[in-house]
Amino acid sequence: MTYSQAYLDTLIAEVSDLESGFKVYHDLMAWKVRRILLVSTPYDAWILEEDGRLSERIINEYRGLNLSHPPQLVWVSSAEEALQKLESKRFDMIITMPRVADMDAWSFAKKVKGKRPHIPVILISHSATQNMLAPIVADDEKAIDRVYVWTGNTDLLVAIVKSEEDRRNVGRDTTLAGVRVLLLVENSPFHLSSLLPILYKEVVNQTRNVLEGKLNEEHRLLVMRARPKILVAETYEEATALFEAYKPNILGVLSDVEFPLQSKLDPHAGVSLLQTIQQQHFDIPLLLMSVDSRNARAAESLSVAFMNKTSPRVQEEIHSFFVHSLAFGDFVFRLPDGRKVARASDLVALEKALDIVPAESLRFHAERNDFSRWLFTRTESVLASRLRDLHVDEFDDIEALRQFLIILIHTHRRSRQQGIIVDFASDDFDLMIDFFKIGQGSLGGKARGLAFLLSLLKENRKVFRQFSGIRLDVPQTLVLTTEVFDTFIATNRLGYLAEADLSDREIASRFARGIFPKSVRNELRSFLSQMRYPLAVRSSSLLEDAQFQAYAGLYRTYMLPNEHPILEKRLEHLIHAIKLVYASTYFQDPKAFSQRIGRRVEEEKMAVIIQRLVGEQYGGFYYPAISGVAQSYNYYPFARMTPEDGIATIALGLGRAVVEGERTLRFCPKYPQILPQRSSAVAIYKNAQRYFYALQMGQDYHALDITESENLVRREISDAADEPAVQYLSSTYIAAENRIRDTIMAQGYRVITFANVLKYKQFPLPDILVETLAIGQKGMGAPVEMEFSVDLKLVRKGEPEFAFLQMRPMTARADLGPVEISEADRQRARCYSNHALGNFVNQEIRDIVFVKPETFDVSKTVQIAAEISRINHRLVQEQRPYLLIGPGRWGTSDRWLGIPVRWADISGVGVMVEAVYGDFRVESSQGSHFFHNITTQGIGYIHISDPKKELLRWEWLRSLPVVQESAHVALVRLDRPLTIKVDGRSHECVVLEG
């Protein structure tokens, strides 16, 4: 019978699903020896302590072997005192010496077992010739669990502890994680005391050496818990019982020649044992041990390894057995005649080698189960178990096996690395890893959100399997932690800029002149040598994307073509962008924002995200087909939607159009075809996106400045009409027929409608958003906002990509207290809206700043922003919060959609209103960075969209005394504070006088 492709595909999927990250390792080694009771005479204790350093040596030995939680050692000098201690305290192990003043070791052990039958009692003797080394049996139970001989090697104490922990944990750990087992058969206390420390040290060192080099330190320590366990048997019956119990998990067997069989020493017991094991499992490595070199012939007849236990090279021979027989070394590809053809030190190298080794070498190793054995030593139990159960002859041919192995290992590697933050190593890094970091500081808020997203993707792989054929991921990311920022600031003595009253441009200039850390420069050079795609260099400050004090959109992001043929040029471009992101920490907007929330600027630290820019190149431009922001809570639901159905805002091209409040398309992922802003063909044409952002490609690099836009081009849709992304997302407006046709073949005006996505579902964007928003909200425990990009692979054929760029919590909305708005309030309201955000009653505002309707000119919005900024500066100095009223969107970067103020321009605002000015009507700011900061800071937000149902009494506003006035803006003041009520549950708001 031949394996079907469906069956092999199922195995590959199982490897991806069953590999549950590193969570399983947390549950391993659950039982630990935490407290040991040492019972001995003062003289014996002095010998063990060697001037009181025994405990220190145990701790040091644990650290040296990368083992955690060294046990506490409690010493008593008499058996009676020990028994009293047992009554009052918990101990996990008792170690006793032969000579105890008031009781012999055997009697003491019996008393202990009478009180605490499950506590292991270990006897350590000074001499191998003492008659007390013979096993003592009373009432068919061993009072002393194991006997060892002390030769001054403190490694023995660690081995004794680990041996007992292995014995207690082996059943659970083999079931949970398929942990491997080494079986040691040895009945001589002297040789056991010599071999066991060597074996444990070798197991730990070899496991540490073969751990996937791409893991971070936390995961390396976790995976160490899955090291092979060592089980000791002293008789033939014990050995066969252990072998049968853990047969699927046996990694290898090391056996003495002579030990008890049916209660009598049998000089051939070891040979019989290994013969029996060979008959059942041909592929288990075996080692025969003896003090008599003549037994080497018996080992040769069995074709197993042999070791003389009295040899001065015991440690070296055990090391050789681990590397060559147990497969802890490199995987060496050989031909059947023994010739070497390739070598692999890790899974990356193995995957590459599998693609090139001769078919006869592949068959040779597959038939011997060499692949599974090698993987078992690397704690890759899921992968190894699947391979061990397969048979070469069940594949169509060797090439089918080859492709299966490559795909299986590739899938496993990607699954294993997903969600892990790996320390970047310039000399050896795996291109498959999603998330690197440089430095030991914080990742910053934005990068933390990305790392959390990666973990959610891994945990919910089965949910996302419904989107087969689509790659859902976080673009490959490298983070420079805040430690690099601190080093840069300290080296260049730039800390004073946190308080300096300088322009953004001057601050950027001083940062640009700074010396960048040489070690980080070298690592970035190595990174860029492998990364030839365009890059986004993003901020990730400590407070960015925090739930209550989010600094969203206040810092800088830069896009780099990263295509210059000279590596050093690309490196300089990248470092310059990083410096500018650093400089933005001290720009005016973040300073104003920090002042508002009561934080000192110098407390803020900046990490930097260097990320693959999602998209495709169309001629001289690079951009994604779709960028967007999605929120799991919609403040303004319409039709049959509920707030919990969420909302998404999308645009063609880079996401700047979305996050800065330009003309975009808004839809509910659950109801993607309900689009009130597109109620008619004319409305669709009028509200459609006219411009989009793309990265300018080409070797003519433009030096970046503080505006973020030097490399970005704001293009007209009509100029890109022939580009595949524009064609895919366009429909045609036919004015003569007053209709929209979902084709680009008709004569008319090209209009971006996203019909192929939202109407015809050729790419399941709404469904992906529904799932990801639900998973994100569950993971964060609050409504979430997510930024994303979509690469439809319209030029380079392949799997379309949905890329997560950012996830952050939305404003906390829990525990909304009641805000009562009566009918009387509605009747006497000076301003009324059903589209307000917040939940409060504000009675502190007496000042109103508003854009004058009679002089408003949409072409003058930049000038209007400057006029508002001057009034804001005055009110901040006077510590007077104010109500701000204006047309369109506040904080938009598109001057034709509203007033393009920055945070520094309105830093003192208490409540803000977006109003209708004549025919000038624009959708609310929901989805932009500016909007996010409004909501997280608790600034009241009022949107007036329907003058028939909502109102703003202009005649009242004009009647108030003017304090300051400019061409387009007025500041008026009341004698008594306004009463502003916002009900967060209904989004209703009233502004009352007095």
Describe it:
By secondary structure, the chain is an alpha/beta fold. The protein folds into 6 domains: 29-155, Response regulator (Rossmann fold); 180-329, Response regulator (Rossmann fold, 3-Layer(aba) Sandwich); 330-417, no CATH class; 435-613, 2-Layer Sandwich (Dna Ligase, domain 1); 618-809, ATP-grasp fold, B domain (D-amino Acid Aminotransferase, Chain A, domain 1, 2-Layer Sandwich), CATH 3.30.470; 823-992. 36% of the residues lie in helices and 22% in strands. The chain is built from 34 helices and 49 strands. It has a 7-stranded mixed beta sheet with strand order 37-44-43-40-39-47-46, covered by helices on one side. A 6-stranded mixed beta sheet has the order 17-18-20-23-21-22. Helix 7 crosses helix 8. The longest helix is centred in the N-terminal third of the chain and has 23 residues, at 155-177. It is elongated and about 110 Å long. The termini are far apart.
Please give the order of strands in the largest beta sheet: 37-44-43-40-39-47-46
CATH architecture of the largest domain: 2-Layer Sandwich
How many alpha or pi helices?
34
Termini separation comes to 88 Å
Number of strands: 49
Report the β-strand fraction as a percent range.
Answer: 15-25%
Radius of gyration, rounded?
A: 36 Å
Helix fraction bin: 25-40%
Per the principal axes of the C-alpha atoms, what is the gross shape?
elongated
Mean pLDDT: 85
The CATH homologous superfamily of the largest domain: ATP-grasp fold, B domain
Number of structural units classed as domains: 6
Biggest β-sheet description: 7 strands, mixed
Structural class of the secondary structure composition? alpha/beta
Quickly name the level 1 CATH class of the largest domain: Alpha Beta
**CATH topology title of the largest domain:** D-amino Acid Aminotransferase, Chain A, domain 1
Q: Are there runs of 5+ residues with pLDDT below 50, and where?
A: 130-141, 547-551
